Amino acid sequence: MTRTKRPLTVIDIQQRIEAEYPNLSPGMQKFSRFVLKEPSRIALLPIRQVSELAGVSTSTVVRFINLLGFQGYQGFRDVYRVGLSLTGPSRYGVHTKRMIGSGNKDENGDFWSRTTGNLVNHLVDTHKSIASEELKRISALLLGARRVGVVGTSGVFPAAFYLRYVLSLILEDVRLFEGRFSTFDEDLVSFNRDDIVFIISFDPYAADAVQIAQYCAQHSIPVVALTDSSVSPVALKAKRKIIVPTASTNFYQTLVPTFSVFEGLLSNLVAELGKEAVNRVSAKFKRKEELGMYWKKPSRH
Q1: Cα 19 from Cα 98, distance rounded (Å)
Q2: What is the mean pLDDT of the chain?
Q3: Residue ranges of the HTH rpiR-type domain (predicted)?
Q4: What is the pLDDT of residues 70-93, one digit of tens each?
Q5: CB within 8 A of 243, min separation 6: which ones?
């Protein structure tokens, strides 16, 4: 990273990290990922705690902020303190911490309210952080593609399965890359630059998802990445990327923001196609009904 004029906003810092990430040392890359994923901790915690949480030395943090153009950690931290109230994703760590509380059941142990409150905050942050124009651009890519491949393994497979289902109601050729018995290579062999591969992957990133992103980059196959960091290994190989929060009040990652993005994409696709979308969906549901895929109430004789 070349030292230049210091960034003035959280977004400036994020964009700078994304642009320079491949050129950073491993230690600085590790801290960059922490900064992008845990902006609220930057605003709230002193340098020693931040370095411990990020798993890097304090000197690495100092070198990082110096390269950004800051004279010290306090100036860097102040940008996040101001930005915390202005940017969407930068608040989700704070929301989660507040919802979890101390974990003591005797301390307002209404876990249902905590869970739903956390999800509502995530949806608000997701709405603020993703520009509607970006969803329109991604929708245009999907509509213009010869075929679409959807990738999502392990815990995000349900999301991939759902996305493939809803896209197939509107688009002609949508394929789910299941990867059973290591068949990803066979799934990809017929894809080229006229197609789109939509990859869903969150930390810890599935090796299959990363390998597919790398393969697509090598063969000029456009990738849309839905992930949790702008410098995740799938985001770095993507033509377009959507960043969503995944922190939950439990041990697993939430997929609620992910599904909200699907709703937004579907709305854009329907709006773009207009009456043609209605015709396609109606025709496919009629075909499903003819095949006996839906239960019918028995008629009385």
Answers
A1: 33
A2: 85
A3: 11-87
A4: 888 988 988 888 776 533 444 444
A5: 89, 129, 130, 227, 228, 229, 230, 235
